[in-house]
Write a structure and sequence with these properties.
Helix content: 40-55%
CATH architecture of the largest domain: 3-Layer(aba) Sandwich
Structural class: alpha/beta
Radius of gyration: 19 Å
CATH superfamily of the largest domain: Response regulator
CATH topology of the largest domain: Rossmann fold
Number of domains: 2
Strand order of the largest sheet: 2-1-3-4-5
CATH class of the largest domain: Alpha Beta
Shape: elongated
Length: 233
Amino acid sequence: MNKILIIEDDQETVEYTKKILESAGFEVHYSYTGKDIIKKILTISPDLILLDLTLPDVDGIDLCREIKSDFRFQAIPVIMLTARGSTEDKIIGFESGADDYITKPYEPQELILRIKALLRRMEFFGSKPQEVITIGPITLDVAGYTVSVLKPLKIELTPKEFQLLYLLMKNQNRVLERKFLLRTLWGYADEQEMEKTRTLDVHIMNLRKKLGEDIGKYIKTVENIGYKFEYSE
């Protein structure tokens, strides 16, 4: 049973949404404020978060950024469920890391369908980072936030380089599209901006350099699509 965390200050909305979600087979938890939400996420370990932008103690945009900036929670989909429906609000919401944006009032069936779509995507990414991944000479330790090459030699990576390598190694031999990586790791939402930015390419180049020529070659470029991690003896 998938667990949904509702962060919403209106009790009536919480009860209404809770009833809809429970009727669809979800386990529902909720919070009326953003206080201690990180602790709550660690305790509940939700599969998806429904977040209102207007909370009594914190701005929903800031809270979304806080959640998505923590590597432990980056894979947890966040749907902004809010009365703010302007294009500008939606752009800000997506830029803060939200995975979807639904304007109130909403159709119950649409909410359920969008939740299920995001949960399917989460199965691909993984909601709980695997603690240790070892492929050939590379060992990536999520808990320790370290990468070792030809143990015990450790290499220093930036947070984004570490997360990029984690995604590539976790999905060994699978092509990860540029748009997916830019959206997941950097929060890009605009497709034109995705086409223009060289952020991903620079991080791939730096990652290969830090891994060394012999090992960096395992990160393959798939022309006009994206990248994949392909290890061979």
